[in-house]
Specification:
alpha/beta; EC 2.6.1.19; single chain; Aspartate Aminotransferase, domain 2; 2 domains; PyrdxlP-dep_Trfase; 13 helices; 7-stranded mixed sheet; 4-aminobutyrate:2-oxoglutarate transaminase activity; Aspartate Aminotransferase, domain 1; 4-stranded mixed sheet; transferase; 4-aminobutyrate--2-oxoglutarate transaminase
Length: 426
């Protein structure tokens, strides 16, 4: 009997815990660039990109070739036992890309959460302090420490009890929802007054553009004031670039557009073109704060993933993907603003580079998030052959994370499908 999405979903429900969510009831069979085919042979345009993992598309030929070549040499030794050059070469290339005119070192690990965990470890060791300040609506991962930093209880921490302490929550500036830069800075000062002295805070961690939180970009003046505050109190600034990195925002790292540099930068997702790889890059003096053996992991910096990431870096240069990111982003925003003009339920179209989202409200009221319509649009788009993602604290944001390598005609068709959905549903 041939496989169907429904039959595989039944097997999944019996074999996989319900805590592992699934947005679309589809089982992918194969993919190429920005196209996915399911087990029933149906074709979809992929505007999700594996949640920002496929900036260079599914199975980019250069990435595939690099992985195939590496597989003829070795697949694993554990870098802490026997080292290999691709790890070192990638660390060098990442350090050259991360903003900051200072000596840097780079740690490679496996997942975004692992990168954030290690960034906090490094900050604590470098400062001799334990506290961390994170922001409202932040997403930093699903491990225990990163759940403390993530600013969304349901579904990520629901039913799990209190997470590790020493984490304090400041307001992320959000003009659309009435949080000014002054308000956000004042919320940090309230933490200093009410909860923890500056000398107790090791780091402030921030997404330059919030991912799961709704694609809100931090204003440049806020980042500059945050940098000055950290310098004043000896606090390390951690830029979580797991979702914003690898060219998604039109620069290789979003902090390049913020006018200041972080002390530590986390990266993951699209850095290795679909292979599990993440890391932390920062000032050498901070990165060296932990003694040998305190960093690493069995699979950390896998040779296969390192080969893929080095190929990704070459693809960005050869195909000029940073300029492509900016062009794709402008195309998306222009098309979505046309939809907004017809359908005022779209309260805002926003984005940095190709990290673009629309936020939906009932009656145009920012205090009435319209999660129902978002859900309906995502389903209808899927029925029409387009894979979309939602996000936001109230699930009322539709985000676009299409591969930067998407053909223009396919990008145009995907945007037409979004417009059709609003015409039919809004």
């Amino acid at each position: 009997m041939s496989k169907t999405n429904q039959s595989l979903m039944q097997r999944r429900m019996a074999a996989v815990p319900r805590g592992v969510g699934q947005i679309h009831p589809i089982f992918a069979e194969r993919a190429e660039n920005a196209t996915v085919w399911d087990v029933e042979g149906r074709e979809y345009i992929d505007f999700a990109g594996g949640i920002a993992v496929l900036n260079t598309g599914h199975l980019h030929p250069k990435v595939v070739a690099a992985v195939q070549e590496q597989l003829t040499k070795l697949s694993h030794t554990c870098f802490q036992v026997l080292a290999y050059e691709p790890y070192v070469e990638l660390c060098e290339k990442i350090a050259a890309r991360v903003p900051g005119e200072f000596a840097k070192k780079t740690l490679l690990v496996t997942s975004g959460s692992e990168a954030v965990e290690n960034a906090v470890k490094i900050a604590r060791a470098a400062t001799g302090r334990a506290g961390v300040i994170a922001f409202t609506s932040a997403y930093h991962g699903r491990t225990m420490m990163t759940l403390s930093l993530t600013g969304k209880q349901v579904p990520y921490a629901a039913g799990m009890g209190l997470m590790p302490g020493g984490v304090f929550r400041a307001q992320y500036p959000n003009a659309l929802h009435g949080v000014s830069v002054d308000d956000a800075m004042a919320s940090i000062e309230r933490i200093f007054k009410n909860d923890a002295e500056p000398r107790d805070i090791a780091a402030i961690i921030i997404e330059p553009v919030q991912g799961e939180g709704g694609f809100y970009a931090a204003p440049k003046d806020f980042m500059q004031r945050l940098r000055a505050l950290c310098d004043q109190h000896g606090i390390l600034l951690i830029a979580d670039e797991v979702q914003t990195g690898a060219g998604r925002t039109g620069s290789f790292f979003a902090m390049e557009q913020m006018g200041v540099v972080a002390d530590l930068t986390t990266f993951a997702k699209s850095i290795a073109g679909g292979f599990p790889l993440s890391g932390v890059c920062g000032k050498a003096e901070y990165m060296d704060a932990i003694a040998p053996g305190g960093l690493g992991g069995t699979y950390a910096g896998s040779p296969i993933a390192c080969a893929a990431a080095l190929a990704v870096m070459e693809v960005f240069e050869e195909e000029n993907l940073l300029a492509r990111s900016q062009a794709v982003g402008e195309t998306i925003k222009a098309a979505l603003r046309e939809v907004q003009n017809k359908h005022p339920v779209i309260g805002e179209v926003r984005g940095l580079g190709a990290m673009v989202a629309i936020e939906l409200f009932k009656d145009g009221d920012p205090h009435q998030p319209n999660a129902e319509l978002v859900s309906q649009v995502v389903v209808r788009a899927r029925e029409k052959g387009l894979i979309l993602l939602s996000c936001g604290s109230y699930y009322n944001v539709i985000r676009v994370l299409v591969p930067l390598t998407v053909p223009d005609a396919q990008l145009k068709r995907g945007l037409e499908i979004i417009a059709e959905c609003f015409d039919e549903l809004a």
